[in-house]
Amino acid sequence: MISCLREWLPPSGSSAGWPCLPLADRLPAGNATRWYATGRAALYQALRPLAGRTGAIALLPCYLAAGVIDPIRALGFTLRFYPTGPGLLPDLAALGDAVAGDPAAAVVVVLHPMGRVLDLGPLPGLCRSRGALLVEDCAQALFCSDPAGRPAGSGGDLALFSFTKYLGCLDGAAMVYRTAALPPPPQPRARPWSTRLAGAWYGAHLRLDRAMHRSPEAAGRLLAASGFCYDRFYAIASRDFRPLAPSPVSARQLQPLDWDALIARRKRNRSAVYSGLGRARLSLVYPDDQPGWVPMAVPALVEGGSREALVAAAMARNVFLASLTDRWDFLPPGGGFAHERHYLDRHVLIPVHEHLDDPAMHRLLDVLNAL
Length: 371
Ligand SMILES: Cc1ncc(COP(=O)(O)O)c(C=O)c1O
Description:
globular, 13 helices, 371 residues, 10 strands, single chain, Aspartate Aminotransferase, domain 2, 14% strand
């Protein structure tokens, strides 16, 4: 607890130090980048100049983080959800038709699910010609590129990155601006006490998660405590769209990371899953491996039987199969989103993070193949 308090006691400063981070070099090129504590605030602040247009529509994929939906809704846009195909990948032709057919479409969001980056083809040009702003949600696609080698976020007018899930830091997000239609807002300001308190809860959640990986025998209790801390954090931070700078704690956490080593490790682990998973109970969501893919985790679907039972069996052998469903547990009402429902009900995320070396990956795959 003392160390968590230390994390929010120092004054947070502005985001001025952030662009110096080596991370800035890893984002796609743009006119400007703004660094924030959260992705949702980055999105809210970017789209603010478009708010208040009567009847303006935002087109969103139907299975999406609340952290994207909430700020867009708070700005008064009418939300229209579009279905995606297998693996949550958008059908770009259908999306193009939807943009072309709706003169009120003001914002279009495309997600690169789990870091699988699509070549957006003519979509950016089409959106521009119709006066719609294209936002690429790259929160799961840091360091990832499309099959032609273009970094995630290279096509849209805005590219959103959120670092917490991907890098395990206390906070941090970036918005890359690539359009003359939207002026980048002023630099974000220092975090107030309430935000720093939220950071302390998040810090405790991260610590408990790490302890869980070190002491799998206590996993049940540590997981519950970690969830409790996360809920306290989320209650404060989830509806806070103010332009606040990321914390110096995250800057300190990220500064020493060796990005090349991290990327190489994740790629190697990803390939190990593709070559070593027997696929008896699990089928990979994306049948083909991709060289530019640096996933936070490799998604798979549980084939037959219960996901909960499979996750419990893996946990009993010290393998933690997460899923997005703790927070992404909803689809828009009305039905018709069959691919997303299937994904929501059956997916698990196979860890491939940089702390897993070759022997650890072999053990992990042995466990998965024996389930
Ligand atoms: C894909 C995606 N985009 C955007 C966000 C919002 O980012 P943040 O949590 O930093 O506000 C999230 C958060 O869950 C996310 O998962």
